[in-house]
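Usage

Read records sequentially. Each one opens with the input sequence:
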Amino acid sequence: MEDKVYRIGIIGTGRIAKRFVKEVEYVDGMEITAVYNPHAGSAERFARAIQADGLSEKNEDFAVQAIDSLDEFWPLVDIVYIASPHGSHIDYALQALEHGKHVLCEKPMALTRDEAEKAYALATEKNLVLMEELKTAYCPGFLKVVELAESGVIGEICHVEATFTKLENPQGRELKDKGVAGSFIELGTYGLLGVFAMLGTDWDDVKFRSIRNEDGVDLYTEAHFVGDKKMATVAAGLGVKKQGDLIVSGTKGYIRVLAPWWKTTEIQVGFEDITQNQTYHEAFEGDGIRYVLKEVLRQMDNGNPNPRMQEISVAMADVMEKFRK
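and closes with the structure output:
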């Protein structure tokens, strides 16, 4: 009996979608069968481009159907990967779930707590996998950081600082997409993952400080969290460059993940007595999406969702809602 191969459909044809295609090559049990874009011709150009670039080499019969109608798209796929503009993520996710499809959605999946809770409730009701594309959460290096933090080696964790910045074209989508542009919406989920994975999602307060351009879009934002015997800072920037480390501070020592921490490869554990310091090295393969794809497969095959990651995803949407207000 042949192993089941799940059919993947892609919604959206931007840069991340092209990287996604290459990552599927490293995951057995999946193949891309369709790509959808509501703009006439975009799906067709994307399908031709990925084949011309040789981005899919699993079999000689590889062919992606370019679709500009969702009614035609749903029957061709088992899993939907959503890589459309941020503001459309949750609508596509809900539609896919209603049509009985598993969903992997680019971040941020939702921009309000209610949207996120509604989506996860629908996935549970229909016994479907719904995951936000948080590749860092499933890569070996970050899992090692969580293991070290939870082991107690640095004592009680009191503070986390997580930074992700990259300089973008001021005229690009990231800074011009009306209503959902800016540093925190684009990059904040990474830092929120670092904070919530180490210190949980229960916080007394969060405050935001931003540097904005003439259109009011944030070029750099810091979110400051305060809780019971804990604090955290998330920094995100598209127009300001800052060293992208993750630092987890405890009562006995600290963990520092060197930039780019979201592609965790080098982990330093430091103590008052520096002779006790340790360094760990972990692999981060490709663009990292293969790690989350393997988790999607695990959940589909085992019917066993990850409640902790769902809680983190909902908490992220809640923070995004507070930031936008």
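Summary fields computed downstream for this record:
- The radius of gyration is 20 Å.
- The chain is about 35% helix and 25% strand.
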